[in-house]
From TrEMBL:
GO terms for cellular component: cytosol. It comes from Gordonia crocea. Keywords: Hydrolase, Metal-binding. It comes from the Bacteria. Gene3D superfamilies: Metal-dependent hydrolases. NCBIfam families: YchF/TatD family DNA exonuclease. One of its GO terms (molecular function) is hydrolase activity, acting on ester bonds. Pfam families: TatD_DNase. A divalent metal cation 1 binds at H24, H26, E112, D227. This is Deoxyribonuclease. A divalent metal cation 2 binds at H153, H177. Coiled coil: none annotated. Residues 1-20 are annotated as: Disordered.
Length: 279
C-alpha cells in the first residue's frame, strides 16, 4: 500500500474518553444527510465518549440539513448561519428563514459567521470582505435577538473581526470556533469573556504558537471540536475527520495543559453543555 493510501484510511478509534461534546462539526459534509447516516456517525462518536455534537451550517441547504439532523437524533444539536464565504446569499428571504431556524429549540447557536480573509483573493465564489462584514453584523444582532451564542469563523482576520464585535457589541456568549490566533489574540478574547474552541489544528507539529495560545485560556473558557470532515488531528492529518476523533484533540489539550485527561474531558464537556444549554 502506498503512503498516500495509508494516509487516507480513516483514523483508528481512540481509547474512549467519556463526557465529551463535539462543539463544532459538519455532519452533512461527513455524509450525514439521512437519519440513518447521522445515527451511524453519532453511534461511532458515542462509543468513544463523544455523547453530544453540535452540527453547523455553511449555506441555506446545509442549515436545513443541520436542523433536520438535530430533530432526527437527540444527541445532535444545530447551529445555523451563512458562512462568511456565502455572505452574498444573505438576502431578505434568507434572513427570514435563518431567523426562524435560529429560534428552533434544537438550534443552540448562530454560526458559523465571521470573516474569512483567506479565500476572497483565491476564489471568485467567496464573498468580498465588505459583504462578509455586513453579514457578520447582521448575525451578531440575530444572536442577541434570539438569545443564543454567536459561533465565529475567523480566518486571517483577527483585528477586523475583533473590531466589528466591539463596535456592534458582543452577544452574551461568543465562541471562537477553530481558534487560530496567537497568544495576544487569545488573551484579548479571554479578557472579553469569549470561549476559545480548539480543533485538530492545535495538535499539528507546526502549531507551537497556537499551543501557547491554548495555554492562556482559563478552564471555563475552553472548548474542543472536530470541525469534521476537515482538520483531522495529528498523526492522522489529511485523513477523513469525524466526531469520533475528538478524544485525540481533547487528550492533546489535557497533556499540553498538564491536566489529567478525565478531568480535562469533564471540563470541556461541562463548558459545552453550559454555553449551548444542552443536557
Ligand atoms: Zn469555520
Ligand atoms: Zn466549520
Amino acid at each position: 500500500m502506498s503512503k498516500k493510501n495509508q494516509r487516507r484510511e480513516p483514523p483508528p478509534d481512540p481509547a474512549p474518553l467519556p463526557g465529551l461534546v463535539d462543539a463544532h462539526t459538519h455532519l452533512a459534509a461527513c455524509g450525514g444527510r439521512s437519519a440513518e447516516a447521522v445515527a451511524a456517525i453519532l453511534d461511532h462518536a458515542e462509543a468513544v465518549g463523544v455523547g453530544r455534537v453540535v452540527t453547523v451550517a455553511d449555506d441555506m441547504v446545509d442549515a436545513r440539513w443541520a436542523v433536520d439532523a438535530a430533530t432526527w437524533d437527540e444527541r445532535c444539536y444545530a447551529a445555523v448561519a451563512l458562512h462568511p464565504m456565502h455572505a452574498g446569499d444573505l438576502d431578505d428571504e434568507a434572513k427570514a428563514e435563518l431567523e426562524q431556524m435560529a429560534r428552533h429549540d434544537r438550534v443552540v447557536a448562530v454560526g458559523e459567521t465571521g470573516l474569512d480573509y483567506y479565500w476572497p483573493s483565491r476564489s471568485a465564489d467567496c464573498a468580498a470582505p465588505q459583504v462578509q462584514a455586513s453579514a457578520f453584523a447582521w448575525h451578531i444582532d440575530l444572536a442577541k435577538r434570539v438569545g443564543k451564542p454567536l459561533m465565529i469563523h475567523n480566518r486571517e482576520a483577527d483585528r477586523a473581526l475583533l473590531d466589528i464585535l466591539a463596535a456592534e457589541g458582543s452577544p452574551e456568549t461568543v465562541i471562537m470556533h477553530c481558534f487560530s490566533g496567537d497568544e495576544a489574540v487569545a488573551r484579548e478574547c479571554v479578557d472579553r469573556g469569549y470561549l476559545l474552541s480548539f480543533s485538530g489544528t492545535v495538535t499539528f507539529t507546526n502549531a507551537a504558537e497556537l499551543q501557547r495560545a491554548a495555554l492562556v485560556v482559563p478552564d471555563e473558557q475552553l472548548l474542543v471540536e472536530t470541525d469534521a470532515p476537515f482538520l483531522t488531528p495529528h498523526p492522522y492529518r489529511g485523513a477523513r475527520n469525524e466526531s469520533y476523533c475528538l478524544p485525540y484533540t481533547a487528550r492533546f489539550l489535557a497533556d499540553l495543559r498538564g491536566t489529567p485527561e478525565a478531568q480535562m474531558a469533564a471540563v470541556l464537556g461541562a463548558n459545552a453543555r453550559r454555553v449551548y444549554r444542552i443536557g
